[in-house]
Amino acid sequence: MLILFAVLFGGILTGRLLRRRPLRALGSVITFIIWLLLFMLGTEVGGNEEVMRSLATLGVQALVLCTGALAGSIACAWLLWRSIGGRRTGATDSAVPAPPAFAALRGSLVIVAFFAAGAIFGIAGWIPATAASSPVSTYMLYGLMFSVGVSLGHDATLVERIRSLDRRMALLPICTVVGTLAGAALASPLLHTVPPADAMAVGAGFGYYSLSSIFISELRSVELGTVALLCNVLRELFTLLAAPWVAGRFGPLAAISSGGATTFDTTLPILTRVAGPQYAVVAIFHGCVTDFSVPFLVTFFCSI
User: Is 293 helix (H, G, I), strand (E, B) or coil?
Assistant: First the structure.
């Protein structure tokens, strides 16, 4: 995490130095890196034979738990957003204008296409499943964080807009944790084989699918670990695809909350574009806190 912070702040400093120069291609670079990372994520899922064999039954469980976790976190974030005045704060007025409906749909379909293509490559064995955790994937993530930092540092109005944000937004990680755990627990009665404690352990991954699935596989079972992997992958994909809709319907905090721990890295560019650059700081803080809580909460619920 410290390396990601260093890369991000290095990008911010670079962006400040380049303020006098137009960076028209930066958005395209960020989008392209996101596509590559999603492709690598697809290869990891498609190349995991255990996940693919159990995809039908475990996938349903993951979908139900993911839906409950997302609904709970979005609801809590929306309540926080309303409590601080919602649109009356004027914060969303400076957000990047939403693209036309067809353009937004096309962008979502491209994202799904890259993930699906990666899954096909992983199933066919054309790319090893371990490639997603290789140094190449790590360097791509560093490149993404650096590019996001440059875009933030290049924005001359960012500091003023950050100062205008309500300090109560710091409560967002708590809303995400409480809403996610409550939503997962309420969804567990729909799955007779998943007790509330296991459901909350799965939800406590907050999109951090690699770490949470490893913990749960070791402390509970491989099957539940697979559910955790699928559930948290679905959460990340939902945020990448539906962030514009969530932000427009429930406010920018709800879009950030849906991303869980991923708002510090993979979903940060999408959220920055949808909610506005001033919310990048909120997203980074939110991602760091939820990311830090994953091993503690997952271990706690697995021990119940």
Answer: helix
Q: Which of 196, 203, 258 is closest to 228 using CA atoms?
A: 203
Question: Is residue 282 within a helix (H) or strand (E), and if so which, with residue range?
Answer: helix 280-302
- Are the beta carbons of 140 and 30 closer than 8 angstroms? no
Place of tokens 């976190």: 73
CB 276 within 8 A of CB 96: yes
Tens digits of per-residue pLDDT, 53-78?
777 788 899 999 999 999 999 999 99
pTM: 0.74
Type of residue numbered 225: G
The residue assigned the tokens 């760091």 is 288
Cβ contacts of residue 117 below 8 Å, gap of 6+? Answer: 39, 42
**Burial label, 19 (beta-carbon count in 10 A; 0-12, 13-18, 19+):** exposed
- Measured in degrees and rounded to the nearest 5, phi and psi for residue 204 equal -70, 0
CB 242: neighbour CB atoms within 10 A?
18
Structure-token match 């491989």, residue found? 222
pLDDT of 148 higher than 70: yes
Residues 6+ apart with CB under 8 A from 28: none
What distance in Å separates the CA atoms of residue 110 and residue 35, rounded to the nearest whole number? 8
- φ, ψ of residue 191 in degrees (nearest 5): -120, 100
Encode burial over 257-276: b for 16+ CB neighbours within 10 A, e otherwise: bbbbbbbbbbbbbbbbbbbb
* Residue 210, token pair as written in the block: 């690699």
Residue 147: is its pLDDT beyond 70? yes
pLDDT tops 70 at residue 232? yes
